[in-house]
Amino acid sequence: MSHEDVLNPKHMPHDPEKATLEGKNKFLGFWFFLGGETVLFASLFGTYLALNGSTQGENTPEHLFGLELVFIMTMLLLTSSLTSVYAMYHMKNHNFGKMQTWLAITVFLGLAFLGCEIYEFYHYIHEYGFTFRSSAFGSAFYTLVGFHGGHVLFGLSWITALLLRNRKRGLNLYNAPKYYIASLYWHFIDVVWVFIFTVVYLMGKVG
Amino acid sequence: MADQTQSKPMHKVEYEKQQHKEEMKHQVLTFALMILFTLIAFGMVVMEVNSYFIIPTLIILAIVQVAFQLYYFMHMKNKGHDMVALMMYGGAAVALLTIITFTSIIWW
Amino acid sequence: MSTATAQKRGLGAAIWDYLTTVDHKKIAHLYLVAGGLFFLIGGLEAMLIRIQLMKPDNNFISAGLYNEMITMHGTTMIFLAAMPLIFALMNAVVPLQIGARDVAFPFLNSLGFWLFLFGGLMLNVSWFTGGAPDAGWTNYAPLSTSSPGHGVDYYVMGLQISGAGTLIGGINFLVTIVNMRAPGMTYMRMPLFTWSTFVTSTLILFAFPALTVGLFLMMFDRMFGSAFFDVGLGGNVIIWEHLFWIFGHPEVYILILPLFGAFSDIFSNFSKKRLFGYSAMVFATVLIGFLGFMVWAHHMFTVGMGPIANSIFAVATMAIAVPTGIKIFNWLFTMWGGQIKMTAAMLWSIAFIPSFTIGGMTGVMLAAAAADYQYHDTYFVVGHFHYVIVGGVVFGLFAALHYWWPKMFGKVLNEKLGKLAFWPFFIGFHLTFFIQHFLGLMGMPRRYWVFLEGQGLDAGNLISTIGAFLMAIGTVIFLINVVYTSVKEKKVSGDPWNGRTLEWSIPSPPPHYNFVQTPLVRGLDPLWVEKMDGKEGMTPAEPLGDIHMPNASILPFTISLGLFIAGFGFIYQVDDTVWLIAVFAGMGITLGSMLIRSLKDDLGHHIHKEELEEDIKKGVGR
């Protein structure tokens, strides 16, 4: 396939993200990476579960966590997952403009989520004096939730870079795989969050 | 280097669009169910349901929700995902072992 | 744009070529040289250890330096010597064995190498900045968290950086093997080396993230005041042990499985028979990989996990002996009735079988949890794991290097010197480590700086040290062989061993696109199938046409360099916050390079049909 066919395909194939060998490789390689990320987060969850009883003073999970904010954050991230599905739907229909719009909405929802998380951490540190260093539970909590937050930040930067880089040209066989795996990454972030709100917040509240 | 750039007959394009639309409907339904599971999970905690059942239930709800995310939102149910499924289940197995370890043989 | 035509234009151009290369064969050279250098450094550290233990109450090196030696010997040999040498073989051979022109991610392949190299450099810089890591290669907390100075910090940052490189390399090979096999190369026709690379890469994918997390926790504790391993604040040191061994035991199989694959190819080639029990061998490889994940806690029998956990892990560990036994018998049956050619590669391979079997048997002894309380942390354990790692991995590396050297460099390593290197190494190896089992049973603990006179340990330790010198002599002869071969030996054809698999169907060293035309694979040992049909080479699966190749790039180097700089910043910001500048500068270089990679289109280039026809005329193609 010539470069021209990749950058300006005359007709878009059914699965633009897997039309080239590079695309197929990216698709598979990224999924494998997510398999590895599963173990990475499992190790963090394991550490958290081993240490969530190691609290100091009043700062126990039950005492600290407020479910309202967590619920809002969950809704934001779940919705952003749906909007990124919409973006991929429009990619399959070769509608570049709508894909960009839906991804932009995804980015805004992600930003809102990140804002809530920063507020939450700020709140714990300043209202409760609950920090990364105050107990093993504190270390484990901020590390697990912070790793997820870091993933959100990276995902947002990644999608934003894609949006800006490609705004003046349409969908092609070179950028379609990039969009596709970025959306996979975003879904995976949501997968991790489902376990975080269940294991850290809900189970923390139940005690 | 097959001829992917061959022009497609119009009716095929229409057919594919129709299929995508069908799939999108399933996605929205999936999303509704995920929201529902989340509401149930939060609701159970807020209403302080008997704690003997609540933790297993919460975990099952989370796993089902994640399965939806993987199979529908991330298209693992579609064909061409065999190797993907193998590696995700591999990762999940190691993850499970890790979690069991850290909740059982870590001294406390 | 096209670096394809990059010819030799002096040293500067050659260095630039290697800094920017994305060609898997050149990356194999890089891995080989870097891994070889670290192997020598690790060997030197081993010699210093053995000299210190030559006689009772010796004072050759100080106690603190001794701790640094044992730590760096283990860490260097595992992470910086064995792993990259294995990656060198994988890079050199796997794409050729499956009939691919390249790997799936040439850019990431190069990134993986540079990350490994900078991580390795980082670790070794510690020698010159106030002391190397000294808490053992396992780096157990709280010994590691309370180790003064910055040694352990170097361990953390160095392994974090090189570990990321390994993970990337693993994913690259997985996708290469799944997506880029030539037409007809089904999974059950892949050579065993490719199969074992596949299983190994899976292990890397699932094992390394646990190390990543462990190292992050260690980093946070040492550099940012968190409390994961601080018992005073509710921390738990067993978390490190579990994370380390969840990674560490699969790591052992990551090291040995590729060499199992290499041995399989070598036995089959030099016995002039197809591998005995091919499908059983594949099954055993997969099974070892699978079981390899369920046994890590046998390193922790004495931790106090309780009798149930100990029993489960003991049984799982013993179970691994079954697929390993299948392999040993299949190798023996491959040789049985074959036309055996005693080349240097074959010599190393045959020596491997009894040596490794001894290591396997002591492994089963150690797996018995009740008995392990006696063996734990004695020289019995040291003897055991050197029997499997030297007797398996190092013998395998020597065998595989002899076997594939002509494919990598176009010349066969001198056979006489090859055999001359083998004998002192082989004898020295058994002298060094066999006696250590008995030293251990007599109660000599591992990692001790000195032992006392009059406890019956003197003679054994002296013998062990003499053996170590013999191994060093063997290694030096091998190095002489490398130099001698490159100066004196003549170029050979692409198929000096009368090979069976695809890599022998193309010239040595291969053109950078490997295959002029993708071959059509018609069975197991595809080249042999064609030879038996009386054909010269492989039947092409496609007409001659343009070949798409990736572009060279300096970005993998700069990404890794940035992390290297940031690593120092992280280590020293504890002393002085000025060092945060290094953190930001380094991360800036890394993220900036990643951004450039993301924004700049890189579609690769084409080698045109006309150039290929030229090459064929010159005899490069076939």
TrEMBL record, chain A:
It is a multi-pass membrane protein. Signal peptide: none annotated. This is Cytochrome (Ubi)quinol oxidase subunit III. SUPFAM superfamilies: Cytochrome c oxidase subunit III-like. It is found in: Cell membrane. It comes from the Bacteria. Belongs to the cytochrome c oxidase subunit 3 family. PROSITE patterns: COX3. Keywords: Cell membrane, Membrane, Transmembrane, Transmembrane helix. The chain crosses the membrane at residues 28-49, 69-89, 101-122, 142-164, 184-204. Residues 1-205 form the Heme-copper oxidase subunit III family profile domain.
TrEMBL record, chain B:
Its main location: membrane. The chain crosses the membrane at residues 28-47, 53-74, 86-107. Keywords: Cell membrane, Membrane, Transmembrane, Transmembrane helix. It is a multi-pass membrane protein. It is found in: Cell membrane. NCBIfam families: CoxD_Bacillus. This is Cytochrome c oxidase subunit IVB. It comes from Halobacillus kuroshimensis. The gene is ctaF.
